[in-house]
Automatic annotation (TrEMBL):
Family stated for the protein in its record: Belongs to the ABC transporter superfamily. ABCF family. YheS subfamily.
Molecular function terms from GO: ATP binding; ATP hydrolysis activity; DNA binding
UniProt-listed SMART domains: AAA
Domain named ABC transporter: residues: 2-246, 310-527
Keyword ATP-binding: yes
Coiled-coil ranges per UniProt: 66-104, 559-635
Protein name: Probable ATP-binding protein YheS
Top-rank taxon: Bacteria
Pfam families: ABC_tran (PF00005), ABC_tran_CTD (PF16326), ABC_tran_Xtn (PF12848)
Key words, A-Z: ATP-binding, Coiled coil, Nucleotide-binding, Repeat
Record-linked PROSITE patterns: ABC_TRANSPORTER_1, ABC_TRANSPORTER_2
Length: 638
């Protein structure tokens, strides 16, 4: 068992745990929760032997084999399946000794090592590694690709597969679903449920936790508090405890009264009925659950749009895709104010393609797309996190959108996203993925959108921020199209489901639970089709490796001009960033704001505005070119 007694853990001046105690028994599946910085990852490092207690003790059996999900990749030249097999270090050791015995032609040694290989189940290792990769969304072609050919999100999937490949008695997983779609999450749930060892899991996906774990350890006020049962049970139990606090009760009552007033006012109006129903559904859950989040640092809303159009978007006979490759055809949709739609579909079916096209970042291949006169889109996608100005603070990002607004108003707004005091003025380059995601959402919320297009908005967000986002979306007056692997978010904020599959978009009449069963059947059919397609056919010629290499070389040659253009854009962006740094450095000179230097100040401000506009144009071109190149690589190689 894992036994923690009187544990004190400190990182620099910050004390994370103080005289904490915890016992985890073999075979338990435990979710580890706590706010950012509470000490969850440090506890993992302690269990892995990377940290030592400042006081007290943390012990686990000496013979336990430990596996964890790495956060980095060093060898980019390995192919995917070999990289996953590297997770089983004992297997690699046996294979090494087997190769040495074969080289020496040592028959006796060979017999011994082969017996060890069999007892370790080494003869099935390759097929088990490929099964893991398939479950996490890799095609059979991708299993042979170089690790370096994959994007960051897919490399994290490789690290997850490697951790699962390693035989273990204790498995430590830190946010394993961050880069997974719903297909892979459902497969991972099944795999973890059948895992026989002890599991410690950090996750902010409530449905995933409910499906896998049987206890919660909450890092709270420097203690490790154990709750028996699922995450939902933890939330109810904690809510009951916190409900005893008068301040919590008053906050909840204020939220309830606000929602009840909205329902009473708009329930009878056809244009608002859907939103009233959505709030009624939220109100039913709120009495039991919201108390578990009363100490959340997040509280925000999307500012109401000045004007609406009906419809906001109207697409007919749409053909959507990349370059000349069509992914969705004959798409027909209309989005009116108040529409609250969750978009479902298997991995690669075209959900993100749909969102990008409606957002205008991907051109429509064919068909007619009409937009309302007052359409104001708030578009969130993961690549937008990279487009934030790394040298600017959250406050400066917001000030650029509202240069005439009072600073205190901006501070109050950004504070709802937990950017307070000095943190509101720190450069974004120091921020985590979760903090960048919060800032991107804050910028969208400020701009008064009447249509939200959200592509996986909860990646990197912790449980409290997800809860705050849920409440904000429930309170949003405009239309919303949501792609998310967070089933709780879809369930609590949408009133209609659309399904993207087999090149088509259609209304999905069933509920989310039925969809998960449909998706499981779909995956089985795909796996069967793939197995049937890869079965050996004597009339089918074998794959010519030399021809494959030649085709790959031709593909690289075709992509070379595009890569050259991207490199040129990056050089221009770098030059503009350097020039902006010089301008901003000059603007930091206090003497510049004296009356006699007025002309120089005007000149610098004009140059700053011009360079920023140029940079925005180049960044947009760079994003489009990079996405097009990535799409072509994916379609050609995988």
């Amino acid at each position: 068992m894992i036994k923690i007694e009187s544990l004190t853990l400190q990182r620099g001046p910050l004390r994370l745990l103080d005289n904490a105690n915890l016992t985890i028994h073999p075979g338990q599946k435990v979710g580890l929760l706590g706010t950012n910085g509470a000490g969850k990852s440090s506890l993992f490092a302690l269990l892995r032997g990377q940290l030592t207690p400042d006081a007290g003790s943390c012990s686990l059996p000496d013979d336990w084999r430990l596996s964890h999900m790495r956060q980095e990749i060093e060898d980019l030249e390995r192919n995917a399946v070999d990289y996953v097999l590297d997770g089983d270090q004992r297997l690699r050791d046996i294979q090494k000794r087997l190769a040495e015995a074969e080289a020496r032609q040592d028959a006796e040694r060979l017999g011994t090592v082969y017996a060890e290989l069999e007892s370790h189940d080494g003869f099935t290792a390759d097929s088990r590694a490929r099964t893991l990769l398939a479950g996490l969304g890799f095609t059979s072609e991708q299993t042979e690709a170089r690790v370096g050919d994959f994007s960051g999100g897919w490399r994290m999937r490789l690290n997850l597969a490697q951790a699962l490949m390693c035989p273990s008695d204790l498995l430590l997983l830190d946010e394993p679903t961050n880069h997974l779609d719903l297909d892979a999450i459902l497969w991972l749930e099944d795999w973890l449920r059948s895992y026989s060892g002890t599991l410690l899991l950090i996750s902010h996906d409530r449905d995933f936790l409910d499906a896998v774990i049987e206890s919660i350890v909450h890092v709270d006020q420097k203690q490790l508090v154990l709750y028996r049962g699922s995450y939902s049970q933890f939330e109810r139990t904690r809510a009951e405890r916190l409900a005893q606090q008068q301040a919590a009760f008053e906050k909840q009552q204020a939220q309830r009264e606000h929602m009840q007033r909205y329902i009473a006012r708009f329930r009878a109006q056809a244009t608002k009925a859907r939103q009233a129903q959505s709030r009624l559904k939220a109100l039913e859950r709120m009495e039991v659950l919201s108390q578990a989040h009363i100490d959340s640092p997040f509280s925000f809303s999307f500012r109401e749009a000045d004007k609406q159009s009906s419809p906001l978007l109207d697409l007919r006979k749409g053909q959507l895709g990349y370059g000349e490759q069509a992914i969705l055809e004959q798409v027909k949709l209309q989005l009116a104010p108040g529409a609250r739609i969750g978009v479902l579909g298997p991995n690669g079916a075209g959900k993100s393609t749909l969102i990008k096209t409606l957002a205008g970042s991907l051109p429509l291949q064919a068909g007619e797309l009409k937009t309302g006169e007052h359409l104001a889109i708030g578009y969130f996608a993961q690549h937008q996190l990279d487009s934030l100005d790394p040298e600017a603070s959250p406050l400066l990002h917001l000030a650029r959108l509202a240069p005439q607004e009072r600073e205190q108003t901006l501070r109050n707004f950004i504070g709802g996203f937990d950017f307070h005091g000095d943190r509101a003025e720190e450069p974004v380059r120091h921020f985590s993925g979760g903090e960048k995601a919060r800032l991107a959402l804050a910028l969208i919320a400020w701009q008064k959108p009447n249509l939200l297009l959200l592509d996986e908005p909860t990646n990197h967000l912790d449980m409290e921020m997800r809860h705050a986002l849920t409440l904000a979306l429930q309170d949003f007056d405009g239309a919303m199209l949501l792609v998310s692997h967070d089933r709780a978010l879809i369930r609590d904020t949408t009133d209609e489901l659309w399904l993207v599959a087999d090149g088509r978009l259609q209304v999905y009449e069933d509920d989310l639970d039925t969809y998960t069963r449909w998706l499981a059947r779909f995956r089985q059919q795909q796996a069967q089709s793939q197995a049937d397609g890869t079965a050996e056919d004597p009339e089918q010629p074998k794959v010519d490796a030399k021809a494959q290499r030649r085709l790959a070389a031709e593909q690289r040659q075709r992509l070379a001009p595009m890569k050259k253009a991207i490199d040129k854009l990056e050089q221009s962006m770098s030059r503009l960033n350097s020039e902006l740094e010089e301008i901003e450095s000059a603007l930091g000179d206090t003497s510049l704001y004296q009356t006699e230097n007025k002309d120089r100040l005007k000149e610098l401000l004009a140059r700053q505005t011009s360079r920023k506009q140029e940079l925005e144009t180049l960044e947009a071109q760079w994003l489009d070119a990079s996405e097009e190149m990535e799409s072509l690589q994916a379609s050609a190689e995988f």
